[in-house]
Specification:
The complex is a heterodimer of chains A (157) and B (335). Chain A is mainly beta and 157 residues long. Chain A has 1 helix and 11 strands, in the order αβββββββββββ. Among the domains of chain A are: 31 residues, no CATH class; 77 residues, OB fold (Dihydrolipoamide Acetyltransferase, E2P) (Beta Barrel). A 4-stranded antiparallel beta sheet of chain A has the order 4-11-9-6, with no helix packed on it. Chain A has a 4-stranded antiparallel beta sheet with strand order 8-7-5-10, with no helix packed on it. In chain A, a hairpin with a 2-residue loop joins strand 7 and strand 8. Chain A starts with a helix and ends with a strand. Chain B is 32% helix and 28% strand. The termini of chain B are far apart. In chain B, helix 6 runs antiparallel to helix 8. Chain B has 3 domains: 57 residues, Winged helix-like DNA-binding domain superfamily/Winged helix DNA-binding domain (Arc Repressor Mutant, subunit A); 207 residues, Bira Bifunctional Protein, Domain 2 (BirA Bifunctional Protein, domain 2), CATH 3.30.930; 62 residues, SH3 type barrels, CATH 2.30.30. Classes of the chains: A mainly beta (157), B alpha+beta (335). The interface between A and B is medium-sized, with 29 and 33 residues. Strand 8 of chain A pairs parallel with strand 8 of chain B.
Amino acid sequence: MKIDEIKELIEIVNKTDIAELAVESEGVRISIKKAIFLQAPPVPQAAAHPAPQPVRAEPVEPAEPVAAPTQPDLDDDRYVKVTAPMVGTFYRAPAPDAEPYVSEGDVVEVGQPLCIIEAMKLMNEIESEVRGRIVKILVENEEPVEYGEPLFLIEPL
Amino acid sequence: MKRLILQALSSAEGPVSGEALSRAVGKSRTAIWQWIKELREDGYVIDAAPNRGYRLLSRPDRLYPWEIQSRLKTRVIGREIEYRPVVDSTNDLAKTMAKDGAAEGLVVVAEEQRKGKGRRGRSWASPFGLGVWVSVLLRPAIAPYDAPQAALVAALAAARAVEGEVGVEAQIKWPNDILVGGLKTAGILVEMDAELEEVRSLVIGVGINVNLSRQELPEDARSRATSLMEAAGRKIDRVELLAAFLTRLEESYFTWIEKGFAAILPALREKAAYLGERVEVIEAGRRWQGIARDLGDDGALLVEDDSGQLVAVYAAEVSLRPGQGARSGQGRAGA
């Protein structure tokens, strides 16, 4: 199955009310599931901001993100948004085999490292400018990030 | 003071009397005697003949600040030099000093690093007295998104210093390694402390394999790495090399800051390795191949993928495609 055909399938799922579609062709099984975006309940709970997941074709090589993930509600002004100061690769840990700097739910202090962004062998350790709880980590480890892209939501304490 | 005494000793033809030294540096003869004692402890061989005076016979192979500063032609870089015989990591010490308010131009240098840092938690072997393990603190008034160009700015300075002091051709493997004869002799690791709009500090860490013998290189790196001594076939003066690097760094740094990255781009292109060759790009867990074509106006490596599209690469490992490795590099540089 060609990538274009998969894209076509995704579009079909996207444009219709179909929530799930499985196709088998030439021994390759493609399953496309649509995560239904749930309206965030009006409870001021941080965890209740589910990211609207893009439609994903599961067995596809992770070469190209098929659809850019839309961000969760970033405009909530209760949260401090930590953004990328430059284009680069996002790392959650100082080394591949090391523990992540922070995880969701952690309480961080001012000046505590949150992640590293690397571009052209420049390592930019991003530190928290507030004391607070990590509500959401918006980027996967080793993902490329754009300038100004939100990385973390922190609830100040 | 040590610098003044050494200057007086080395500029003289023969022995210098304690009295003449005391006049030259404006200190008492007793003070001079104390300083001579300290210099001897530092490893200087100073002959003292009764009634004739002091004579400098040899200097130790050490990266002492006063030795570096007496050779520097800089306004900013190296005004302050923090010297440690042994340190965990010059970058870490420079970062700490930066947080404590150290001024732009601070140089941290060590004879040995116990935890020399490479990219992503890798180590950088930094044995005692055999390399140049140095970090430079810069505080450029630039936007953080332009800061990654600093690695290339430093790489250009390192390549020029190596060519000037060692007399071998040096190439820059994008974005931060220096190759001699196709083999890695130096690496650069830049660490930034920034806010969204402002760079608080850049620490430029450079490790140059200078006088390591083949056996002293890490075993797993021997097929890809070398030292300047191995490449040149002679021992290299580390003090001269470091002073040349810092002088070159100040040149390329201020050209970059004052005239923009475009002003150093032609020189970088001239020294860039792999241009026109097939390379493998490993970025964010993804591998692909293409032909390295050029450096972009912002310092990105422009690689033409197999569909003919030019892709700007910012954060990646780039290597020659397996099978075309060090051999072709050596052949090219040997010619």
